[in-house]
Structures are given as structure tokens and as C-alpha cells.
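Key idea: predict the complex, not the pieces.
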Amino acid sequence: MTDSLADLFATDPLQLTLKRREAREQGLPDPLLPLIERLRAARAQFMLGQKTAGAMKNVAPKGEKGKLSLEDLGL
Amino acid sequence: MTDVLDRMMDEIGTPELPPLPVGPSPFLPGTKMQWAWDSTSLGQLKKCPRLYEYSMIRGYQGRPSFHLYFGIEFHQAMHDYENGKAEGLNHDAAELETVFKLLVRTYNWDSDSPTKNRETLVRSVVWYLEHYQEDPAKTIILANGKPAIELSFRMPTNIKINFESKYPLDETTYLVCGHLDRLCEFAGAAYAMDRKTTDKTVGSYYFDQYNPDNQMSLYTAAAQVVYNIPAQGVLVDAVQTAVGFSRPERGLTPRSPDATSEWLHDLEYWLRMAEAFAKHEYWPMNDTACMGCRFREVCSKSPGVRDTYLQSNFEVRKWNPLSPR
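Result:
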């Protein structure tokens, strides 16, 4: 977790509420958005890893019919 | 969009473990015979009458566990998200408000668990909501026009109360009650939905544990009887929480009409046993069900010292199935 996100977790409820209100009044993005975007990105990365791991189960030496090769996977 | 921030200003607190809510007594007046049963209390009776006595009759709940807190907060977050959607918020806005409320509620929560802590809780909520943003399971709309989410139900039975009390009894038959997370349509059939969080790997064996299962059979019966939904079982949404990831998995635990009828038929036998235990004010130990039981250490002590051990190691926080959520 980056320092800014760690700060967000450590922010007390009142301050967090005030930060959000202030951002809204100034037309700025919600201060919680970076946290959610970071978690979405982490999920996307995890899903990609899962997909690659799944594909690796079907990996065969190059040329074997019906199976992917490492080159096919770009690895 | 409603002003969620303004409302939150009034709601901010520093809760620790949510207190067990109160409500009318689930016991017949002046007796130790329970007339309103939920899956928790019935499950305890079925597993071990002594466990039932310690938990339900005497109210010993053990020390708060991070597993319980994590599960409660995850469910509350789902509730907040679904309410936000019902109020007209889009996915992004509902998710944002859900995370905000979660951070506020859990501000003082300090967990030593590497898999179930504040960070993994927030991550699990966001990953779950992202995973099911386009959920193929659609929430059923009830006859009153409201979405079938977070339903507290009371299911009357025709099982007569056969228990004497010196006090007049208002109730003549037993009641089954509880809370359903959601009723939904999935792949052309109706199901109750229940959400679980676990730090174990979720595979087919995980879902197999729910058939047979007291809670899932009760939920299926309630969906059919109380909400008149032809529920074919329970859709179980389990979220595995690990150190580096949270993985939602969905499984089905089906119940045929005959299986549901059998569960309801067996219920009467269990309630008659409960009456017999309460009549004698004795709940025997099932010493084949001690694995993983929080009272195992108590029961392993000599009978003469168990009360002292209970009083010094457990908190009294009585569970009430009739409490609204």
C-alpha cells in the first residue's frame, strides 16, 4: 500500500468525512477514489495472473497439436 | 443523489463489536423452553445439547472473534451497497459510499490476522462488488414492489407447543425465524442467497458441506413458505480472503421439494427433544461433536469446576433470534 493510501486508512472518520465534503465543494474527485482504483487495478492484475496460470496448465512443447506453446502465451 | 455525507456526519461512531440486538424473548415465559428458533440455535441443539445450553440458555458467547467481526462487516457492506443501488445510485457511487461507511465503522478495528483484517476486508468488498457488477443472479422483486434483500423472516409452523408453564402462554405453535441475504433468480430458477467469507480455499468440496445443512434447508423452506418463492435451494457466494487476494466463488446447494419436506418433518422431532431437555433442565453432552467447539475446553474439565471456568473465560451476551437486524 502506498503512503497516501495508508494515510487514508489511518484517517479518523470525522476527518475523512470533512475531506470528502471539502473535495465535493471544490469540485475535486472524491479522496476515496484512488483507494478504489488501486483495488480495482490489483484485482485486474490478479485476474490476469490467474488467466496466465490457467493457460500454463495447457502449455505443451511447441508444435504439439491442440495445445498452446509458451510463445503463444507471449512468455 | 441523496446527501450521504450529511447523513454520515450523524452516524459516525466508534463501534467495537456490534452488540447483540435485543427483542422479545424467544423463550416461553418462566421456562427454559425456546419457542422461536433460528438456524443458529437449532443448529446448536442438533450439534450438541450442551453447546445449546451454554450458548442459548446461559448465554456464554466466547470472546469476540475476528472471523465473526469480518463476516458481520462484510454483510453490512453488501447491505449498504444494495440499499444504495435501491436508492438509485449507480455502481460506482454505491461502491464509493459502501467503502466510506466501511472505513468509518471499522476505524478502531485492530486485527492481527494476516487474512482477515481491515485492509483485506475493504479489498474483499471491492473485489466482490467488481466481480458481480453485472450479476447474472437477479434480485427478485417482492409483491410489495421492494427488492428481496436483507429479509428478516418469521415462519410459523403447525408444530404445537407441548410444554407446561405456570405462566399463561401467548404462543401455541413454534416459530422459525432468521435473516435472508437475498432472494434471486439464477439460470431460470429461484434461490435464496447466502454470503460467506472464509480464509480457506473454495472448491467443490466447500459447497458440498452445505448439503445436507441445517441453515441452507431452513432458508430454502423460508423462501418457499414466507415469500411464496419456488426456491430450489441456496446460491452460496463465498469469498476466500488470502493475504494477497480475495476470490469470490459461487456455488449452488439444491434442495428438492421432498428434501425440504423431510427437513420440516424432522424439525418436529428436534423440537420434541428440546422440550424433553427443557422439562428436565438437562442438556446432555454429545461427545462426538467436540472438534472445533469453543466449549471443548470447558467440557474437558471436571463437572465441578466447569461453571468457574465458564465465568472466567466467557462473556454472557444472550443471542436472540427475534432481534431485528
